[in-house]
Amino acid sequence: MKCPICKDVDLVMSERQSIEIDYCPECRGVWLDRGELDKIIERSDAGPPPERREAGPRRDDDRGGYGGKRKRKSFLHELFD
Q1: Which helix (H) or strand (E) holds 44?
Q2: Cβ proximity of 39 and 76 under 8 Å
Q3: Which one-letter DSSP state was computed for residue 5?
């Protein structure tokens, strides 16, 4: 199957957690068949709760180079390496 965006590039099929995902290696677009997004959402809701870090005294040097705010990982992060 050809990428709907790139037109000339064949989509690559990958299987993650028994869900088939088609993606374009050129534009990195991800294409899902009917019901696959629902499976991804179900599995993300059923995952283990995130680990909590104990709150301790805050120091200025704990913040890191960008103000200490880190981007939250998406549930899609587990599907793509």
Answers
A1: helix 36-45
A2: no
A3: T
Q: Are 42 and 35 in contact (CB under 8 A)?
A: no
pLDDT by residue (tens digit) across 40-79?
A: 888 877 666 566 666 666 555 555 555 556 666 666 666 6
What does pTM read for this prediction? 0.48
Under the banding of pLDDT at 50, 70 and 90, the label for residue 33 is confident
A 10 A CB-CB count for 4 gives 11
DSSP structure class, residue 4:
T
pLDDT of 11: 92
**Sheet order of strands, 12-16 included:** 12-16, 19-23, 30-31
- Cβ pair 26, 11 in contact under 8 A: no
